[in-house]
């Protein structure tokens, strides 16, 4: 039930800090170590390459998941859009492990790949919010995202939950290989939950940003580099899906290769700056678009923010910034849709779970 909330989407955005805390609890042993099935640990350890298969927002979580596993557990990962995988099939490694990410666990495009993969005898792990779902039943292993039912068509809390579970999977795989980490993942996820709470308390500010930048615009761009780029893809999808504003997320460095031609007077460009090592270069990209008339809105992270930034996110571990930087983008999309009188929870032409290929 959405209770006093006007929309499920807003409720689900607000639930994110609790979801992260729930995940910490569900996957924690009494001695504070991470609890994952031995079978999953073995499958991760034995595989020589991981293939992540997903669609939409879950695909975007997979892109972040790839970075987490590669950086923390040092295992190679490829991420594929489910609907394309069988047509543009990569050359598989000798011992692949497939990870299917799906909030609903019912997405037909993923199932098509899972059926094919099982025919070849490969192992499959499903990361889902619905443990009894088709993809969960048909895979060898399941990791539950514990986000609670997600009703709004636009996925919010499932996305952050998927990335949190990926973090734990990456850390568990690192532990299993004896890789020493210089951070405490559960503590860092706790800091993420606190940061999310700070963000959900700043709705008025984000509502104003949505009004200022997006009230009348027909299009919008999201730019970022490194992990921020992946979050920009998600920010753009969220905005398209519920406000019908044509939005594109792209890598800051790609601007000069074509997209910058689209910048006109007043074009909103939302830039994410949460990654120290690319802070200067993304700010350089902002200057390039501003010089061509764009209306830039910089969302940065504490510690690398500048006075003119529109919004500042509390600092979290550099690997985990996507879990928090997406919140302002979710809320901006929400308010942009609201200002345009769109049906936030049930956008046109869309279904919550896509059960046709
Ligand atoms: O249930 P799934 O995670 O498999 O769904 C995948 C996509 O259909 C889904 O994420 C879709 O992109 C959302 N409506 C985005 O908000």
Automatic annotation (TrEMBL):
GO molecular function: carbohydrate derivative binding; glutamine-fructose-6-phosphate transaminase (isomerizing) activity
Intracellular or extracellular location(s): Cytoplasm
Domain SIS: from-to ranges: 40-179, 209-347
Function, in words: Catalyzes the first step in hexosamine metabolism, converting fructose-6P into glucosamine-6P using glutamine as a nitrogen source.
EC id: 2.6.1.16
Major localisation: cytoplasm
Name this polypeptide is given: Glutamine--fructose-6-phosphate aminotransferase [isomerizing]
Quaternary organization: Homodimer.
Cellular component annotations (GO), alphabetically ordered: cytosol
Residues of the full protein shown: 244 to 600 of 600
Domain of life: Bacteria
Annotated catalytic residues: 352
Any one GO BP annotation for this protein: protein N-linked glycosylation
Catalytic reactions of this protein: D-fructose 6-phosphate + L-glutamine = D-glucosamine 6-phosphate + L-glutamate
Keyword match Cytoplasm: yes
Coiled coil: none
């Amino acid at each position: 039930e959405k209770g006093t909330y006007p929309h499920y989407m807003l409720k689900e955005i607000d639930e994110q800090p609790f979801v992260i805390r729930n995940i910490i609890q569900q996957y924690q042993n009494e001695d504070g170590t991470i609890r994952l099935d031995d079978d999953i640990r073995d499958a991760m350890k034995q595989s020589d390459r991981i293939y992540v298969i997903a669609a939409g927002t879950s695909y975007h979580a997979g892109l972040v998941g790839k970075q987490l596993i590669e950086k923390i557990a040092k295992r190679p990962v490829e991420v594929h859009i489910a609907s394309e995988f069988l047509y543009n099939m990569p050359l598989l490694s000798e011992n692949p492990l497939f990870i299917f990410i799906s909030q609903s666990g019912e997405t037909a495009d993923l199932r098509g790949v899972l059926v094919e993969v099982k025919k070849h005898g490969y192992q499959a792990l499903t990361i889902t919010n619905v443990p009894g779902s088709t993809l969960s039943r048909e895979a060898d292993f399941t990791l539950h995202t514990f986000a609670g039912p997600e009703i709004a068509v636009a996925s919010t809390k499932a996305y952050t939950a998927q990335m949190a579970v990926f973090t734990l999977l990456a850390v568990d795989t690192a532990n299993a290989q004896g890789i020493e980490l210089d951070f405490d993942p559960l503590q860092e996820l706790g800091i993420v939950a606190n940061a999310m709470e700070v963000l959900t308390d700043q709705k008025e500010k984000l509502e104003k940003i949505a009004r200022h930048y997006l009230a009348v615009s027909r299009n919008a761009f999201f730019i970022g580099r490194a992990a921020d780029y992946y979050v920009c893809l998600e920010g753009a999808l969220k905005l398209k899906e519920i406000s019908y504003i044509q939005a594109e997320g792209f890598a800051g460095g790609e601007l000069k290769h074509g997209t910058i031609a689209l910048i006109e007077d007043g074009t909103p460009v939302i830039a994410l700056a949460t990654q120290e090592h690319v802070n200067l270069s993304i700010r350089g990209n902002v200057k390039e678009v501003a010089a061509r008339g764009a209306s830039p809105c910089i969302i940065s992270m504490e510690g690398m923010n500048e006075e003119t930034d529109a919004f500042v996110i509390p600092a979290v571990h550099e690997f985990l910034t996507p879990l928090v930087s997406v919140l302002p983008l979710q809320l901006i999309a929400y308010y942009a849709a609201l200002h345009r009188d769109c049906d936030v929870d049930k956008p046109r032409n869309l279904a919550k779970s896509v059960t046709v290929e």
